[in-house]
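P.,

For your records, the input lines for the assembly:
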Amino acid sequence: MPNNQFKKSELYSFITGKASTAIARRLQKNFKQNGIDITIEQWSVLYHLWKEDGLSQQQLCDATFRDKPSITRLVDNLEKLQLVKRVASKDDRRINMIYLTPSAQELQAQSMELANQTLNEALEGVTHGQVEIAKEVLQKVYENLS
Amino acid sequence: MPNNQFKKSELYSFITGKASTAIARRLQKNFKQNGIDITIEQWSVLYHLWKEDGLSQQQLCDATFRDKPSITRLVDNLEKLQLVKRVASKDDRRINMIYLTPSAQELQAQSMELANQTLNEALEGVTHGQVEIAKEVLQKVYENLS
DNA sequence: GGCATATAGTTGTTTAAGCAACTATCTAAA
DNA sequence: TTTAGATAGTTGCTTAAACAACTATATGCC
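Structure tokens returned:
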């Protein structure tokens, strides 16, 4: 069978993304049970700011694979929760730099721990080699469509 | 390294599901370009009805991995588009059986062709063996969390 | 300098997800 | 047969995605 020929039914789960949905739900549940009151989408923005604080909204778009309106509203909500602050750039007045507040910094350790724990639950019984291949496939899919 | 120990950064893409999002977006785009005016979520409901017409909403919940309110509203919208009809079950009056209309039946061939084409675009350069492993991993993740 | 174009971000609208609370119907057990 | 509990579906609310249309600022070219 050629590489790019598959049966419909086998591939449907790739489209619906059951697995990534399930991980997101479990992580959300784990957050809730531990008193972390943010959504996964909000967390995914914070995640990139923990890696590098002071990103612009456009950089957050690229990092999170979301469009500009989505980031505008996620930042709106994160600002309401007092987890980030918009700071207008002095060099380029079109740009908002997004900075973490102290409360957001406090969330980092616990939420990353929960994220790791969730992934370990999800990948129970899956070998490292299998995960590596799955990651390669997903990365390739992403590249093919970008 | 034990099977269930991974570095954070490596696994982040599992949570965000970039790949499945990218496939869904591409499929939506391909639908639009071919004049098919339904959402991917609506299509995923039709997909199961094409396999077996006359499923209950609860069966659609299980099949599509969505909760009951989501299916209620997807069926609402599909009914507005005159693609499905709710028919109250005679055996159990709590149950709505969902039936395809002729217009929905007409959509099947073309939309399944576009779905296959989209998956082939997505999986360009990925071997059948790699896809099999990726599918196993995703299935296992789903099972671990269900 | 002035104008076309590109870039950063916002707003409006529709569709959907997730959760809780609700109604209606069915089932099983006292 | 009545009543408690389970099941099927709906509604309300908040958050988010996708897309188009918009404002404001910056850049590059004449």
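Two observations worth noting. Chain A touches chain B through 58 residues (CB under 8 Å). Strands of chain A lie at 55-56, 84-88, 96-100.

Regards
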